[in-house]
Task: inverse folding
């Protein structure tokens, strides 16, 4: 590709490795040569198509879809009182598709590389290893945001755009891909980057403390293998996090993290997560005085009872008992799945549930919580159920 440069009545041809006539100091191929190149636009379209095909076909029906369903249920249980359902589902899917089942992603890239232009092949090769980034925005440089790894020595550049209008000191977190088309250190998000204002930068210290509680250090590998708990830390208000530490909650978080990850890996009998835009009572006036976390837990209970085909009388009984418990005790909901698991255990003890009996361990695994948490809430509900 050459560029016709008209200056002083003369026309000269600017080659790809010549300085760009715009005066930026860059080589032409890395400046106006890119924006004016039709091949660059075609490559961008091809990359979008390849990404779209993967997201549209993953997971395939069968064991992979069952594995994702169980993972989403585990994340819903842990984060239901902290994040919106759609955001939880999106984060869980991204983690599944690009981290947990990276083998599926790499197989797709290998298939897609067969008949594409060289520029696309180079990008696909760099996409082979997604990673979880936790970085501080330290400045801007020639249309790029400069990002410094909070837990290591890495430094990256990301194209500046209107969606990321963040000041220096902001923390950015998410799964990213390398993008070496213009800069070797460039990255791009898989889909969503989460921003944390500099006023809340203490969350990095909380992540370090969590890692230390597991005898580990906070680095890229730790973030990926403990992503569910990282999301919980990021969405837990600072004052509540301090209370959790005072109550020894970090130890329980560590226990939960290992069990949740094990459940997601085993994923042998996952079922589709029920989609119900209008739960029977989760939106009604009768619970409008409850907190968002408490209402979300009731919605989860209703969804589970519908999935298990619990008869109307017993379903109303369990729902009303949970509402009464929330009004009388007014607990802060940290683990919605633990509360639902507890009321299920208590209901089984009272012979209110149909089907095959289950153990407390099985129920804890179903909702992605520790057995101790499930039993604690079972004790709270046992005397309330009739």
Result:
């Amino acid at each position: 590709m050459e560029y016709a440069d008209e200056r002083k009545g003369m026309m000269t041809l600017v080659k790809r490795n010549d300085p760009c006539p715009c005066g930026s100091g860059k080589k032409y191929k890395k400046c106006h040569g890119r924006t004016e190149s039709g091949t660059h636009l075609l490559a961008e379209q091809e990359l979008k198509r390849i990404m779209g095909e993967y997201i549209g076909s993953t997971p395939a029906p069968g064991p992979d879809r069952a594995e994702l369903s169980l993972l989403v249920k585990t994340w819903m249980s842990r984060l239901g009182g902290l994040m919106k359902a759609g955001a939880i589902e999106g984060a869980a899917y991204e983690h599944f598709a690009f981290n947990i089942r990276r083998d599926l992603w790499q197989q797709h890239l290998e298939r897609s590389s067969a008949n594409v232009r060289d520029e696309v092949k180079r990008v696909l090769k760099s996409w082979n290893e997604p990673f979880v980034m936790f970085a501080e925005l330290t400045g801007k440089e020639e249309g790029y945001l400069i990002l410094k790894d909070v837990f290591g020595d890495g430094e990256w550049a990301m194209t500046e755009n209107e969606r990321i209008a963040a000041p220096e000191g902001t923390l950015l977190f998410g799964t990213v891909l390398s993008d070496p088309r213009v800069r070797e250190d460039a990255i791009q998000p898989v889909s969503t980057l989460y921003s944390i204002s500099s006023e809340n930068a203490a969350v990095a210290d909380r992540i370090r403390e969590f890692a230390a509680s597991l005898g580990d250090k906070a680095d890229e590998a730790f973030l990926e293998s403990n992503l569910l708990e990282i999301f919980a830390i990021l969405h837990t208000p600072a004052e509540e996090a301090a209370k959790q530490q005072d109550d020894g909650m970090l130890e329980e978080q560590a226990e939960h993290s290992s069990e949740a990850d094990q459940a997601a890996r085993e994923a042998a009998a996952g079922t589709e997560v029920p989609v119900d835009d209008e739960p029977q009572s989760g939106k009604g006036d009768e619970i409008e005085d409850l907190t968002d976390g408490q209402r979300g837990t009731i919605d989860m209970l209703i969804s589970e009872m519908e999935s298990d085909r619990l008869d109307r009388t017993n379903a109303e009984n369990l729902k009303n008992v949970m509402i009464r418990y929330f009004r009388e005790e007014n607990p802060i909901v940290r683990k919605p799945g633990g509360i639902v698991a507890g009321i299920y255990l208590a209901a089984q003890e009272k012979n209110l549930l149909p089907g095959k009996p289950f153990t407390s361990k099985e129920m804890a695994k179903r909702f992605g919580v520790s057995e101790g948490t499930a039993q604690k809430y079972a004790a709270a509900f046992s005397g309330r159920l009739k």
Summary: The chain has 16 helices and eight strands.
